[in-house]
Amino acid sequence: MTAKLIKGGTVVGPTGAVKSDVLIDGETIAAIFAPGKSPHIDDVIDATGKYVIPGAVDAHTHMELPFGGTHASDTFDTGTRAAAIGGTTTIIDFAVQRTGEVVQDGLAAWHGKAEGNCHIDYAFHMILGGVDDESLKAMDQLVASEGISSFKLFMAYPGVFYSDDGQILRAMQKARDNGAMIMMHAENGPAIDVLVKQALERGETDPVHHGLTRPQELEAEATSRAIWLASVAADCPLYIVHLSASKALEQVRNARDLGKNVFAETCPQYLYLTLEDQLGAPGFEGAKWVCSTPLRSKHETHRADLWQGLRTNDLSVVSTDHCPFCFKDQKELGRGDFSRIPNGIGSVEHRMDLLYQGVVDGKLSLSRWVETIATTPARMFGLYPRKGIIAPGSDADIVLYDPAGRTRISVETHHMNMDHSAWEGWEIDGKVDTVLSRGEVIAANGEYTGRAGRGRYLKRGLSDYLI
Ligand code: URP
Ligand code: ZN
Ligand code: ZN
Ligand code: ZN
């Protein structure tokens, strides 16, 4: 047996923090001991003064996504390596069925990009770019045989990924029957397109107009519509992705108060960054922060409301929506026309640190930090208890987090394949110290020792988070 003992740390999980030693046998966790009760093991990792937490699960990434006339700049190799260094040991990426394409062909293409290239374990959701008889049938096959139990639909991006209400209803009915989760990009795309056209006609071309033409009402309206469509589909489970706005959160809260299987995630950018300070940066600089849903105004209550939503579980998950584009040659496609700026921000490396700052600032408890970045995403998407928890039998995906450390984020030091950082110069109280993936130390003391190809595809089950 290749045993390791993580000794002297404080194990943090969704139910609290307890000083314990963690025994690893090969790729899994064998046992948890009270301090002083663990057996003698030669291979000891000293965790004194550290939090010992489950490796984080990022349930929303877009490696190599073809989008906006280009493709996301992180490959599965560069993106999962950066994730690992930041304490994320599982990603769920979005495989894509483009309009007119066979769903299984889109999935095969995604396996082709990921296989042999990932540094950490990975799973897929499926984006349905076209809902018809064929793709509805494919949903059953993906759930039954491919380990894919969640499907993303878009109420935005007409002509690209957009589904109309009838298509959405049909996909929801199918998901209700086969146990899958519908994930929704909830923005009213046709209405946004009108506002975008009018803005461009007025000569409003700077990046800030990306946000101004996507008012929160159009996120709230789409969120509400998705919730009621899910109700009509006999309460199909619904997960709102990248929720950014107070009024949209209100819709989710109302649905949850009615006891519905409606869930939502937010992302670090909506918790910290704003329309004025980042998207509204002078000249074309704001293009770095063009993403959809957009950053919201600092003069409204969005950020405080989102932190509150995380505390009350009206927001259950923090994902990154990692969709990086370089400034040069990619974001610059939209110089002179904000609607052509590729949408997306890259943060896959920084989620654990950015959310830990919320703990330091008194906005989130320690256990809620772990729950929103690891345990709940694993439960929500059928990876639990293999991932997302430190417990006997679970994969030994473990992070030692140093609360006395400090992290400075910069393009000079990050590992994502991006020529800028949305978080340039940010300083965090806390630091990822050691990362284990299935029992193997892949990052320690600032050094990365993992390798491409060691990550495995995870077939997921159904959500165990439903009411
Ligand atoms: O701006 C974003 N969010 N880009 C990625 C695609 C999506 O809608 O999630
Ligand atoms: Zn390319
Ligand atoms: Zn989206
Ligand atoms: Zn996304």
From TrEMBL:
Residues 51-441 form the Amidohydrolase-related domain. Gene3D superfamilies: Metal-dependent hydrolases (3.20.20.140), Urease, subunit C, domain 1 (2.30.40.10). This is Dihydropyrimidinase. Keywords: Hydrolase, Metal-binding. Belongs to the metallo-dependent hydrolases superfamily. Hydantoinase/dihydropyrimidinase family. GO terms for molecular function: dihydropyrimidinase activity. Its cofactor is Zn(2+). It holds the Pfam family Amidohydro_1. InterPro entries: Amidohydro-rel, Hydantoinase/dihydroPyrase, Metal-dep_hydrolase_composite, Metal_Hydrolase, Metallo-dep_Hydrolases_sf. It comes from the Bacteria. PANTHER family: COLLAPSIN RESPONSE MEDIATOR PROTEIN, HYDRANTOINASE/DIHYDROPYRIMIDINASE FAMILY MEMBER. Its EC number is 3.5.2.2.
